[in-house]
């Protein structure tokens, strides 16, 4: 058995240091028992030393002693009884008390091990005196000093072991946190790259192919009915149409998961549901239900639509959804608001998103780019302006905050084929 660790149902493999300590304890016990047997003045003393050695060896290999405190206590009781018998027969058994100290301290709880060590030291002193040794300070100092050294050594080792285990757990938690952070950063980077690609495809390929199709249709109308070029223009227009459809399919495939199961209005409405967070359902709590911010920390959010909804280009939907998520996240983290409202307004030449709260407010001129790399106000502004829109913030200390973004709509954007596909 391992005297340097408390019995547990599952033990980790011994590291080199505990293994060496265990081996040294075995050798110390064996050497002291052999010395006691050799120097015993009677056959009974030799037999008692052999019995004590057999009991010790049995405990070293019995699995219950290594896994159960009760079994370890029983084994220590039998070992102590055999040692007391040997102590009664020969004074040389006194030295066996020293390894017994270590066994008691390691296998018993502190509330039992310390009294057991004291009783063992007392028995050693009484036996030494009972065998006719002259009284001198060494008779008392030897066993007591050995007990003190054992207690200090074992308790110090256990304290170091606990500290080592605590640091090991902290390191494991740190490694796990780093892995989660790396995964979150990879996921965020993937989403950002998907949004960028969708925007680039929409702004370049899709718009270019749409323009080519319009120009070819105009050229087709300008040609005489019997023109030999009419067939070529028709085939070119169909090729442009096919490639435009394919480009729109790419944009749909790159759409954020929040927009995969419905329109922008549906995604914003889900964002305002109880238990929904700034990055989709489950990320926080904005409604009356509990969540990451608790039942009272998040404001109650209401969503409304103004005007006649029209289908929007995917980059518009992505930008408006991300700005709404970011604005709500700022409301929860910084505004201490009780209510917030999101309004999506469709007008003749633009679509507007307003996020208003009744929180603490702030001075808009004092805002600086976020040091955490998140979606702060400057990032929201850059996202809106990249699509040719405007972004405004109205706030004052104690008067809440209103965030508004407006994106222009062209006639083509308002057509049924534009909604969420180009």
Describe the structure.
The protein is of the alpha+beta class. The protein has helices at residues 16-39, 43-61, 63-67, 69-89, 97-107, 110-130, 137-222, 230-253, 264-271, 294-297, 314-335, 377-386; strands spanning 276-277, 280-281, 300-306, 339-346, 350-357, 390-395, 401-408. It is built from twelve helices and seven strands. A hairpin with a 3-residue loop joins β4 and β5 (350-357). Mean pLDDT is 74; it is low at 1-14, 277-297, 370-375 and 415-422.
Topology record:
Blueprint: H1 16-39, H2 43-61, H3 63-67, H4 69-89, H5 97-107, H6 110-130, H7 137-222, H8 230-253, H9 264-271, E1 276-277, E2 280-281, H10 294-297, E3 300-306, H11 314-335, E4 339-346, E5 350-357, H12 377-386, E6 390-395, E7 401-408
Parallel strand pairs: 3-4
Antiparallel strand pairs: 1-2, 4-5, 5-7, 6-7
Helix pairs in contact: 1-2, 2-4, 4-5, 4-6, 5-6, 5-7, 6-7, 7-8, 9-11, 11-12
